[in-house]
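Below is how a single chain appears once it has passed through the pipeline. First comes the sequence as given, then the structure the pipeline wrote out for it. We keep one example in the README because the format questions we get most often are answered faster by looking than by reading.
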Amino acid sequence: MDEKLYYAIIWYFMVKNLETGVEVKKVDSQGRLILPADWREAEIGESRELYIIKRKGYLKIVPKRRVDLTENFDKVDLGVETIGSWKQFEKKFYEAGA
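Resulting structure:
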């Protein structure tokens, strides 16, 4: 295969992948923009809250989700059956880490 053709094919697929999900939006005079409806429905949900992360040159918008902290609570293996004495457990825990 010709080298130029090979690079043209690679470039075509790279550009196609980059274009997926890219939309040009206008910002109004008060700094507002409209988020795509399909993305809002799929990602934001009922909380309607977002994290807006400011970076140099761009903003990153991430939906705020409720995290269940108890979901993995019982999955942590501390290497002991039960904790009878908290002081003794802390001592062994910190010795193991050192």
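Residues 3-63 form one domain.

See the next section for the split statistics.
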